[in-house]
Write a structure and sequence with these properties.
globular; homotetramer; 5-stranded antiparallel beta sheet; 16 strands; 358 residues; alpha+beta; 20% strand; 24% helix
Chain lengths: 358, 358, 358, 358
């Protein structure tokens, strides 16, 4: 169950403090010329230590490809890759051996498997997502015409005043200009300040990421169990710390009437409004796809908390090491990567679903 | 892609106006004594025409089992079943042949497949979910100790004042006592009135379903791509008209600090709070699971709407036939069924994941 | 585990003496015009009671399609179908309740599942293969350019004198002209006589089916675990009573030297010889595919045999009812159907494996 | 399609002359104490250069585990591993860039993918099977009670005089005492001589491997499409150079009558004979499983052969480098590994198929 996708498949392995993490991408078509720099660039966006508001842990995070690429192109063979864990300070985590950190996976792993690699969270560490970013970057290159843009919509209670469709009109080139990855420079400053304050308190905070997919082809997605939004939802809910997903009108759509919510069709095939979020009956209709992803506050805080040890005894525990006060800025490239993986999977399937498409 | 689940698998077929819908359940263990009445009861909860606020379309909705059951018990062979489409008024839908209804799947099916069975929505009809309810009812019987309860939390802007954990203390026996399926009798009346008024306007309205899972075993769910909440999210987003999913603290958790949000562990292994929604690191921790599911207003309204026909010409269209003004009350058993299917799948997998569990 | 295929998927259900058997075909592309008569024709070739050397059991064996076809074409939705079990003489099999027939699946089903539907073999009956023939007939129509021909190569010790490539030059139109389905009319007579004699003895006999696939496209099959011949082998070994599979030079190739066995390439891209059986590295090379399938003698004989009952007590048992003295003639359409299903699966996959194929 | 298994899953990557080959094992239960030396031992049995009758190519073939093992035990997380390609003499293969070797995968890879990594056969090299041996060795440790023994039954026309059940009585400890891996020391000498002579001629030869599985539990295997023997057949046909598979009575069983072939049940639940090969209705019956695997002669010979280059021009080609004159001796551990993987997969599934097994 460490595989994502059915046609464009990513299978991963690795723990936070093992020698390496990595994966195998199976199903990438042959003949795709890969821009390796672009892949590394995505990894750098996810990397720890990239700004003043992320963890100061250092990882080179350089991906090494082991197979499936020959003379710069994919060969149709599986693409094996790995990323070394260069900065393993195992000592920092020795206190985790006996104790279950609150709202972490320590307790559930121990109960499920009867054992766990406790160093740095082991398999449960968000370090795993580096492999997703590698695969997602390749998926993006498979679908160059589709434009996937994620950005920070809110940090704690501080939120963009605009929502889609206004957000789609924001200056997306601003996103990488600030450490929060918010397309509104002013809001970004406010958010950054807030994160710094939270960190000073030894605390953490959550936020919402919005993702907008432009230039979508029509017809991606399955009608019943693998609806496009259901797979996107699954993809997003796979990301560490995610608590919710909504697309199109989402939760606010529950308060609307049908006469307000329906997207009327124009002769161009486009719709006047886009409460459907670019998906109808589980299938893309060519309009922008947009969705929100809710991230909870990071569980590791620099304050004392009550918890129990493996024997059930009450103990106190406090975060050590270097942690993010807020995962949202580093989650942006992960949201994009998982979106790209989802779309690549459906795009491949779509090629063989209609005999008359040939 | 018409299969849900990996171990306890449901594969379905059928269109709204074909001779029958149905499915095959593969992977149900042998030796399970089935209560067939309980299965039919779940179907009746989903059935059209059951109350004054649902569509008046009549379907007998009787499930007929074709295989896999012998002398009242499952044999380990696949369970084939079907439900006849008894009340097919194909004439009502003849106007759908040429036109694309707004916010329906007509346009996307036609573009994806180059054709579609337009009668009553064909494969896109929510009639499909009757098969899910059958399979979910069997999944429930496989896991009798787990208690899954869904109910209406809001209709349009009218919402229960309470949220989890208070909602878990509501009188769940009240749910089936009112046509809205709300555990608060007073709110239920208000919601019912509102739905009736909306129907008079020829309009429709959305709402939110909450689901609470009690008596959960520890250890269900996968750590990486098949996190328990990711699969629940996918399951819910597979239901027609769903626009969003959140579990535990959900979207409101994004505004909390880690120090507020963390669920401190007690010596019993339980947590003081349950913002995690019973799931940590993708794996159940034994606390209640709870989540919200957002339903949009039904797309078919009894008012004139602008749209286009298959040739792209602008036309006007209005709903005909008998439709639900609000899907939420009938969605309750579907939410429960998809929850049960998801849990059964993980429960089977869990049996083989730990050598020392034997 | 009642599903065959990954892209063109068949999932089946049903027992020999239940109300119906059937299945769901998922993944058939939209827009395929179906010749329903051709499907029924394949079913008739498999049907019991078709000649003097098959069982006299009567089954109408009419397939009824329930979904996925609209106005004569596939819609991309799953194709549900069923075949009624019209001639269920359950009484004939009542003696099977307590006893395990030798070389049947009675013992293993009982031990594995703790129960079994003993009527007529239940799920283990070869009646199941009628559903395969339906799906295979649709697969054949998806790939009209590929010509799949199976025929009887031997019955007991009576064998065609010719082997491939000579067999590919036989008059295949002769196959359906005799009840044995052997392309050599003279040999067919001899085989028929032998089967009749065996039946008189209350005994049964095995045989070998050869299958030749002509007009194969290049490139079908996967290099590693889903080699084209590995999937064909799995498909054939799924057929009841099959004990062996060999393709190309097969077992006799083990005695050859490389210098004899290698197929030298000509400038046309064809090879001078075809010991490879049309597959190299798991992938079709455009030459004919040919393979042999070994069928054991039917286990049900009309003679007394020692066996045990469910309590382990020694008992005597003899076949009752109407059974085939030799399955080979009726197995011909099943071999073709499973070949077609295998090729359809790979053909769909192949469409998306090479970016430059577009 | 680079994954084998459904529950105990192996996914592999790597080319003969890339930096490394390797894989990910997903689904191995937690809490399994691993004997790493035993795994390396299996690899050594497959290693090139181990005797005078195998290729003199040297590979250290040391497996390095990257994840999923902690304090000597499996954790339930995926087990990543790799084996470095230490002895890449890429120059030896430069002549392969332009030419298609007869009866190799060069032509089919090029046509399917439009490109290929031609160095040493790339992905098509049997070096891939080293990864299978690693995974198979772990599967063996998961099922310590089952005894899997493969051995050389014939080399070219030189064959063991005995067949099963006599072969099961041979001294299996002899197998590793001779370079041919034949349990009959005298025959082994004869086979060895023959292989040496063939090598002198610059030629190659095939042979047959027999595998016997003892101490089988009852109930492994699926009744319909994943019959135990169908999966074993698929597993064997996945091995490079395999042309055929038969189990139990196999092809010779086609000449028997039912009255001779049927395995009569004794009160112990065992059968008097074992023509069924330990499998009835696709499910193990507790008797020994035995099967034969046919290997063709190695395609690379040290003689001149006619072939074509990528442009279709006729050219001559001769083998260079160091190759096996016969793959059979080194195939023995691969046959065992693939058998173990197949059984492990079914064994896990079997744990959850019968509610009353608990």
């Amino acid at each position: 169950m460490n595989t994502f996708g059915t046609f464009f498949k990513l299978t991963t392995f690795g723990e936070s403090h093992g020698p390496t993490i990595g994966g195998i991408i199976d199903g990438c078509p042959a003949g795709l010329k890969l821009d390796l720099d672009a892949i590394q660039l995505e990894l750098n966006r996810r990397k720890p230590g990239q700004s003043a508001i992320t963890t100061q842990r250092k990882e080179a995070d350089e991906v090494k490809f082991l197979s499936g690429i020959f003379e710069g192109k994919t060969t149709g063979a599986p693409i094996g890759f790995q990323i070394e864990n260069s900065d393993q300070k195992s000592k920092d985590y020795s206190h985790l051996k006996e104790n279950f950190r609150p709202s972490h996976a320590d307790f559930t792993y121990q109960k499920k498997y009867g054992t766990r690699d406790y160093r740095g969270g082991g398999r449960a560490s968000a370090r795993e997502t580096a492999s997703w970013v590698v695969a997602g970057a390749i998926a993006k290159q498979l679908l160059p015409e589709i434009k996937i843009t994620a950005f920070t919509r809110s940090i704690g209670g501080i939120s963009l005043k605009k929502d889609y469709p206004e957000t789609s009109g924001l200056d997306f080139s601003e996103i990488e200009q600030n450490p929060v990855r918010c397309p509104d420079a002013e809001m970004a400053l406010e958010m950054e300040k807030y994160i710094k304050q939270i960190r000073k308190e030894g605390d953490t905070v959550g936020g919402i990421v919005q993702c907008v997919v432009q230039n979508m082809p029509i017809g991606l997605g399955e009608p019943i169990f693998n609806k496009l939004h259901a797979q996107l939802g699954k993809a997003m809910l796979s990301i560490n710390a995610v608590k919710g997903f909504e697309y199109g009108s989402g939760f606010s759509g529950t308060k609307m009437k049908g006469s307000e919510h329906n997207d009327l069709l124009e002769t161009s095939g486009k719709t006047k409004t886009n409460f459907s979020g670019g998906i109808q009956g589980g299938i893309s209709n060519g309009m922008d796809i947009y969705f929100n992803v809710a991230f909870k506050p990071v569980a590791t805080i620099m304050q004392n908390q009550e918890t129990i040890d493996r024997k059930g005894k009450q103990v106190e525990i406090a975060g050590k090491g270097r942690h993010d006060p807020c995962v949202v800025p580093r989650a942006i490239p992960i949201v994009e990567a998982m979106t790209a993986l989802t779309l690549a999977d459906f795009w491949l399937l779509h090629q063989i679903q209609n005999r008359n498409n040939k």
